[in-house]
User: What shape does this take?
Amino acid sequence: VAEYKVPLKDMSFLLYEVFKADEMWQKLPKLAEQVDKDTAEAILQECAKIAEQEIDPISRQGDEIGVSFKDGVVTTAPGYKEAFKTYAEGGWTALGGDVNYGGMGMPKMLTAMHEEMLNSGDISFALYPVLTAGAALSLAKHGSEELKQRYLTRMYAGDWTASMCLTESHSGSDLGLIRTKAVPQEDGSYSVTGNKIFITAGEHDFTENIVHLVLAKLPDAPAGPRGISLFLVPKFNVNEDETLGEFNNVSCGSIEHKMGINASATCVMNFDGSKGFLVGELNKGLACMFTMMNFERIGVGIQGLSASVRSYQNALEYAKDRLQGRALDSKVNGVKNPNQEADSIMVHGDVRRMLLNMKALNEGSRALSSYISMQLDYATFGEGEEEVKGETLAALMTPIAKAFFTDLGFENTVAGQQVFGGHGYIREWGQEQLVRDARITQIYEGTNGIQAMDLLMRKVAGSKGTMLKVFTDEVNAYIESNQETQGMSEFITPLAQAISDLTELTTDLLTKSESDINELGTAANDYLHIFGYTAMAYVWAKMAQTSLTNNGESGDDFYQSKIHTARYFFTRLLPRRLSLIASAKSGSDCLFAIDDELF
Ligand SMILES: Cc1cc2nc3c(=O)[nH]c(=O)nc-3n(C[C@H](O)[C@H](O)[C@H](O)COP(=O)(O)OP(=O)(O)OC[C@H]3O[C@@H](n4cnc5c(N)ncnc54)[C@H](O)[C@@H]3O)c2cc1C
Assistant: This one.
């Protein structure tokens, strides 16, 4: 297995050359105090060491041994607790946190890259700190001052982790159905009772306390999603002097045995009259939880990318070493590797196809993730028009980050396994673990089907196309200003076609949906992918342009590689959208005309 190497050069290229993050940081007063290029570089380099040296090496063992459960006690795989301690002592648990409570206040553009490294090291490990960071974000935004002082500071310090308790056995995508109850108490707290399933990091042995963010309903709450409130429920109550108090009747009933992410504890959690504290307003819990969920959705998208990056690195090293067959053109152009009895599999068109698919989609996903993170940074640290535009674009593109990157992540980890032939199917090389680990990313944090509905129904149709227009206006302005840019026509022309097709398809679907709402539900998945490829074309054009400016065709290997890969994306991958458009336009009749009994 190849040793994991963090793609630091690509990360710096995106930050400073393509998106000019350092200029943006200087411009935004709230960020200028926290971060500059030197700080950012130091952070990425130090974090890379942790991912490569502490986390990647425990991943295989974590998969083999997994998490164990006995008498309510959850024990993580060997090395995990120690790795978390090293991670927390390095201050990494505070990276994106609110500076008023001990956080470092770093922008999302950096924390997203930090997440990519952790997840490429091991998704199971990364889930513990990344979920805690998401919960902290929700608490920082919606929690009372008292809760923030008491809990947030300890979460940033890495003393305690957090979990997100939404799902119940009968309530997954449809959270309006939850039954967990919260009864108001005289002291202003709530007594929380109910059972949650599939709770990641609900119980473990990393830290002495765990902070649960729990969705529950008051006895007289309105039915459905409008009656949901959010509560902070600690495993152990916390005394006035900040020492740990009594056990809060939060227990783990069992853990799940799963297809992948075996080192992540997936717990059944029981709350039995546990003391809870309201976060945000009563009956507005779902909105507060969405602060966390949106953060986690981008995070889960990044997990898909991370698994694919790890798989690509293994596959590339293997393909260079593995000798099988001769190149098709050997008879015409001579044998490529005459000193050995076969050529490396790198000579085969189909192997190159798999590797280039992975490379182009990984680099495209990383660039798009940086673009979306930049929007989040404008939304968080910007003001006025910039802030509003950032908010709109981040909201529009979050479901794309979640679903598109994870669908590609699964496709790519399968490709990375395929490059190994039979050796990809057996455990030794780690490629099958990546396939199994990547698979969950398409399911949790809102299935990819739900993400597609969020994009097309809530964001695009819900805003009558105005949110989409913010994106298409930006891309059209970019196309306009680069029509004449030397060397760019091979990228600008197909980008212009893609954006015009997306606009036309949107109008077509919104019109049809006026008479048949099922048009949106049946086209949603195709639509999300069409949008994904189009948005990726935009960032690939930007990367190609930056590389051309750096004398790419004849210059540094890095820029040459970018230009080749951009070409590959535009000629081989962007056309995938054409079949998806045909499918999206085909209408809902053929899905609903068949009776359920005829399936
Ligand atoms: C390993 C693991 C870890 C998890 N971690 C957590 C956690 O930490 N916290 C937590 O609260 N939950 C967690 N979950 C739960 C996870 O988020 C849910 O499983 C997921 O949201 C789907 O819910 P469900 O399983 O009930 O499926 P269902 O909601 O029953 O969905 C079944 C199918 O129907 C589709 N579907 C449902 N409704 C619609 C609709 N309106 N339109 C179109 N299609 C629809 C879905 O896309 C899916 O294909 C975890 C799950 C797993 C497996």
